[in-house]
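Exercise 7. Predict the joint structure of the components listed below.
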Amino acid sequence: MIEQLSWKVGGQQGEGIESTGEIFAIALNRMGYYLYGYRHFSSRIKGGHTNNKIRVSTNEVRSVSDDLDMLIAFDQETIDVNAHELHSGGIIIGDAKFKPVKPEGCKAELVIIPFSEIATELGTSLMKNMVAIGATSAALGVDTATYQAVVEEIFGRKGEKVVTSNMEAIQRGADAFVQSAGNSVQTLSLKKADGKNRMFMIGNDAIALGALAGGARLMAAYPITPASEIMEYLIKKLPEFGGTVIQTEDEIAAATMAIGSNYAGVRTLTASAGPGLSLMMEAIGLSGITETPLVIVDTQRGGPSTGLPTKQEQSDLLAMIYGTHGEIPKIVIAPSTVEEAFYDAIEAFNLAEEYQCPVILLSDLQLSLGKQTVEPLDYHKIKIRRGKLNDQELPEREDKAYFKRFEVTDDGVSNRVIPGTKNGVFHVTGVEHDETGKPSEVPENRKDQMEKRLRKISNLSFPVPIYKREEHEESDVLLIGFNSTRGSIEEAIPRLEEDGFKVNHAQIRLVHPFPSDELLPMLKAAKKVVVVEHNATGQLASLVKMNAGHGDKIESLLKYDGNPFLPGDIHQQCKEMLANGHI
Amino acid sequence: MATFKDFRNQVKPNWCPGCGDFSVQAAIQRAAANVGLEPDDLAVVSGIGCSGRISGYINAYGFHGIHGRSLPIAQGVKMANRDLTVIASGGDGDGFAIGMGHTIHAMRRNIDVTYIVMDNQIYGLTKGQTSPTSAEGFKTKSTPSGSIESSLSIMELALSSGCGFVAQSFSTDLKDLVAIIELGIQHKGFSLINVFSPCVTFNKVNTYDWFKQNLVSLNDIEGYDPTNRMLAMQTLMEHDGLVKGLIYHNPTRPSYQESVRGYSAEALSKQNLALPEEKFTELMAEFM
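Solution:
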């Protein structure tokens, strides 16, 4: 009996690799297993190697596993590219059609099954994926009937016959595995799961659902990988709530349109990735100086320029904190799990209205697209806070005096009215202005307005600015990360502890304004600090050093080859760094 | 009921004496009163440039944005609160150079915004460079040997972009201009009104006199029919775009707001944001 399984299906892009993994994963999620799926794909529609790696466990998992138990191959390339991940005792199941060959030195068992032939016999070669799912199930000891409901949901619209033949394909795959492998292959029997029904979603689903729960009623966006799922979810759901998604001509329009509707009182978001964020920079400054709430999701991917559009990276961090010319108050939040992505999306809208400034919800490709099992979300944690928003009619104005929308206050936040409010007329401008929004270059006024705006976030309160695992009063090493590296770091920790190191962990959730006071005690208590991040220049490490000091203890563990950190990467490299004492 | 005076505020425009923009400002104020608006019902969103300052000179909700982006901001305002009347305005550089992408797509999209462009064929605020509507050969600081790029036929472009209300006017014809803006506000969809608004400081070619001599009123063209798109295009070509009046009007094309599935009839800005628990449970179940 195994408690955890790592499974991968691979082939050419456009062959249905994604849906194969999807059907397999949904069925197992419903059995109560925890899943984590990560897709390797390219920026093209057809052709090119693609794979979907899925981890199945009886415990929560949040990272791509180091190795592989089972590989389903629809072409030889899949075997050649991925076989090294298989450990001895692992299984490759290949389609007889391409005459699979095991690479030299590969210790896994190769089982050959005529996926395509069986599928063709049943009507269409498209069903080879279902045959593969059947073979997988036999190898894992999972009952093929498990798939009935999922297959009905997916193919039900196409009619009873399609459902039946797909189920038959699964059964035939299972039978074929038993026949071919017989007793020669040791099956990987999975320990039974708890049978609880949990959600199975990607980070982008959680962000979109969070936006909806957080009161967003409009979204303006331009499609881009890996952010598009957010707009695709919301265009399906927002009409039920009277709202919609507007697909704009570019990201400049997306951000400025969102500013327009936030100014007019509707929670509006936009979402993009690096190239789009670069185009939004001027608008971010406009939101800052006009004190208009704005929520932007940045799903980081490989940069610069078009970079690695379908690969993992965390290189937008400093651009998101400092980007836009001039100086504005800004909040940058970086959820580290899918659950956090949901709650942070809600919080982003609250903060944007409370502090009347741009809020960037930072994600990365692994968090945005990694699909995982999520415990049900807590409805009672959804709170809408709109700050100093006045929705009441105001007293009649004298001499057409404008409402003091930018009144200088102690906390820097001014009362806000929205267009349409009776007697609330005021002016908004990206030019420096006085308390009523009238352009002004008077030095005293400039100073007052600048300081008022910047002071808004000086006392920002954010529920959990750092996710901490602080097991040791004094640690040999403190691991610091942000966004999706959380899962791999968490898995590397017990291995490092087994090696005899005392490890603490801080995952930075609020990256700006930086929670220095929260982090300092952990930095002080650490002999060494390793900042784990997906970029080439150590951006988070710079941020830590700049805000909290202790530069002499801090070293970077970087990965920028497009692939996510595996727990083993962090474990091995950290161990070497600690053993060599080069930090 | 508000009069045009109610749309005045106490701010003195920083335009040069004699600038065409003064009359455009007055025309917007009169048109707003004539169609029965109150200052609280109107949002004026403007871009950057001399004309962009207009949002600060009208007693209404004003938003002076960034260069070239008045239209996306204005469309966002309208989508958030469909009860507001939204006017976007700016200059030819703002709308037809840096903001051209938005202009074309706003026309295609057809959100109910009235876009008033003050076209002076030059960049004024940056002290005299060529603009997309400058004529070929036009000498400016940035084109000392004369512009070698062709001038945009913005009205023709509007017709080909699906704009349902295309009009052109001249800033001194206050009465006509007011009437056109009223029609533009009343049109349920995107309306483009290009107003020749001479720059007395930097454009010594396209002067008030030049426009008086060269502009042809569509009222003087026998049999002109603004619902005939083909005729509109032909007339524009025949007169090199130098016509004034209502060029094209298609009142039948539904606006974006009318076409969006599920879009709330009540202003979105007035909605209660709370999500009922049953609904949330239902949304979660879709991921199970």
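Discussion. Residues 21-34 of chain B form the longest helix (14 residues).
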